[in-house]
Specification:
Layout: E1 2-9, H1 10-26, E2 32-39, H2 46-61, E3 79-85, H3 97-100, H4 108-117, H5 120-124, H6 135-152, H7 157-171, E4 174-179, H8 186-190, H9 194-205, E5 214-221, E6 225-226, H10 232-238, H11 247-260, H12 262-267, E7 270-274, E8 281-282, H13 303-317, H14 320-328, E9 334-337, H15 359-376, H16 382-387, H17 402-415, E10 417-420, E11 423-426, H18 428-435, H19 446-449, H20 454-459, H21 485-495, H22 505-520
Parallel strand pairs: 1-2, 1-4, 2-3, 4-5, 5-7, 6-8, 7-9
Antiparallel strand pairs: 10-11
Helix pairs in contact: 1-2, 1-13, 2-17, 6-9, 7-9, 15-17, 15-22, 21-22
């Protein structure tokens, strides 16, 4: 079984992790155990909370209070171990750099040095909502926050993640990928220092041992969104507020740093440079003020975050021998980028390494999207009907627990859509589509994303996922004049009699639905 490690840092890192978890749900990481660390300075961050909801649903639908297993050729095939950490900046003594460093108690020389490196506002702004694009102080604070957490909390999530990483390194080569932006605060602060922080933490916990077989990759995700510029009153109240007008300049400065700093270049083996041509994507709707963090910072997903998740996919699939050659090279890290069609249209093959066929991704993405209709529509809820034993010639799934059933609902609501009081709540997939600019820019039929009411969804023919002029429309199927896609699926499900070896009934049902959908759509 493959064992991979991934860290998402900051608000952008949380959204990249969401896309990565959806790849796991599609079945892109068969027979794999994923150790996932979500690291943010703002535990109240809405994107952090949404990621936790997503992973919680993923884990529970694989089995309530049951041993988690990795599988192959099914949805949710990867086993995910979730870890999280946020430095505690809520206490009076940790609320600002000034208090953490005890600047007011320092000698004159130390105070002069602090004042030389950091302005008064940077020393005193509230850290609860992150580092606010102040990477020069953020790197220092994050490095010491990780080491302090390992010292103070040996049984905590960071220590457990460190131990898993060390044990994997002891057993053989191990791969770690880091997701975050280079233009903001927390992610931009942490990417340069994370390899050193992890290595020092391992030395502290394991008698000076090092991560000598560790390969590390990361995204260098440049600016791709904007938000309302802070007002003068916000600047005065918050002392330091990130301004998206500076994101392009921040990105340029960061790229120069990653090109020139030899210590960072030698710590990593692969950097994936990602970004968009403009910052036109808006993260907030009708917000009167700049949001520095907290529950209100629940930004929509963007297609570039799926590219970031696929950067992790590419890194994990890179042969160890290739990474070892890079590690041994005195010039250090290699840089990778991906160009897109000038029309802005995205295709399945755009996300994958050039040497890999897009067929597997197309199949898994399409089938997971089709399954969302079989779960989320109240008039044709196949999963719940099978669990209740209400379907003719379909039985054996009655002991799926309510917790597992609710987790399935939760996951597919976060993935695609959910209907609530006849209103449509957008999930990750619909947000991705909107971020492309709409039209025919995402691979699926634009008609599917034009559904705006519960009635529209109930009437939609999800047998036709692809546009008529698409090269993939051969996978559409016709229900016929007197039938519908739900009935066609039930027939395919009944014909699918191969019994999976999975012990958990929820995973058994999911596997059988996966196989039936694959045949129905001609994969």
């Amino acid at each position: 079984m493959n064992k991979y490690f991934i860290i998402g840092i900051g608000g952008t890192g949380m959204r990249c992790l969401e896309s990565f978890v959806h790849l796991c749900a599609m079945g892109m990481f068969d027979n794999s155990e994923i150790n996932l660390l979500a690291l943010d300075t703002d535990l109240e961050n809405g994107n952090f909370a949404r990621l936790q909801e997503l992973v919680d649903a993923y884990v529970k639908l694989k089995g309530e209070n049951k041993a988690q297993q990795a599988h192959a050729d099914t949805f949710f095939s990867a086993k995910i171990n979730f870890f999280s950490f946020s430095p505690d900046y809520s206490r009076t003594e940790t609320g600002s750099f000034q208090r953490i460093a005890k600047v007011s108690y320092a000698g004159e020389t130390e105070r002069d040095l602090a004042n030389l490196l950091f302005t008064e506002n940077v020393q005193s702004f509230d850290l609860k909502h992150g580092y606010r694009a102040q990477t020069h102080v953020g790197s220092l604070l994050m490095y010491h926050a990780i080491l302090d957490e390992v010292n103070r909390n040996p049984g905590g999530h960071v220590s457990s993640f460190i131990d898993e990483l060390y044990n994997a390194n002891t057993a053989g080569n191990v791969k770690l990928f880091i997701l975050g932006s280079v233009f903001g605060g927390t992610g931009a602060s942490s990417i340069p220092v994370m390899p050193a922080a992890l290595d020092t933490a391992v030395r502290k916990r394991h008698q000076g041992k090092t991560l000598d077989k560790l390969y590390i990759g990361a995204t260098l995700l440049t600016s791709y969104f904007s938000f309302i510029s802070p007002t003068q009153s916000s600047r005065e109240m918050q002392r330091v507020v990130a301004d998206s007008k500076n994101f392009s300049m921040n990105s340029q400065a960061a790229m120069m740093f990653y090109e020139d700093d030899l210590s960072v270049k030698r710590a990593y083996q692969k950097f994936y440079m990602l970004g968009t041509a403009t910052n036109d994507f808006k993260t907030e709707q009708a917000e009167p003020d700049t949001i520095t963090g907290g529950a209100r910072q629940r930004n929509d997903s963007h297609y570039i975050e799926l590219f970031a998740a696929f950067a992790a996919y590419d890194f994990f699939k890179t042969p160890d021998s290739d990474l070892q050659k890079i590690k041994a090279d005195k010039n250090g890290v290699q840089y990778f980028f991906r160009t897109m069609d000038e029309s802005g249209k995205l295709d399945f093959k755009d996300f994958l390494p050039e040497h890999e066929s897009a067929g597997g991704f197309m199949k898994r993405f399409s089938l997971l999207t089709a399954m969302s209709f079989l779960v989320n529509l109240d008039n044709t809820d196949f999963f719940a009907s099978a669990q209740r034993g209400e379907l003719k010639n379909i039985s054996g799934y009655e002991d799926i627990t309510k917790v597992e059933l609710d987790a399935v609902y939760k996951y597919f609501g976060l993935y695609h859509f959910r209907l609530s009081n006849d209103q449509v709540r957008e999930g990750w997939l619909r947000q991705l589509y909107r971020s492309t600019g709409g039209g025919d820019r995402l691979m699926f039929s634009p008609e599917m994303f034009g559904l705006t009411t519960a009635r529209d969804f109930r009437k939609y023919d999800y047998g036709k996922l692809f546009p008529k002029n698409s090269e993939y429309n051969r996978h559409n199927f016709n229900s016929g004049l007197f039938s519908n896609p739900f009935d066609k699926f039930k027939e395919a499900f009944v014909r699918e009699t191969t019994d999976s070896p999975f012990a958990n009934k929820s995973e058994k049902l999911i596997k059988r639905m996966y196989d039936a959908l694959g045949k129905l759509y001609g994969f």
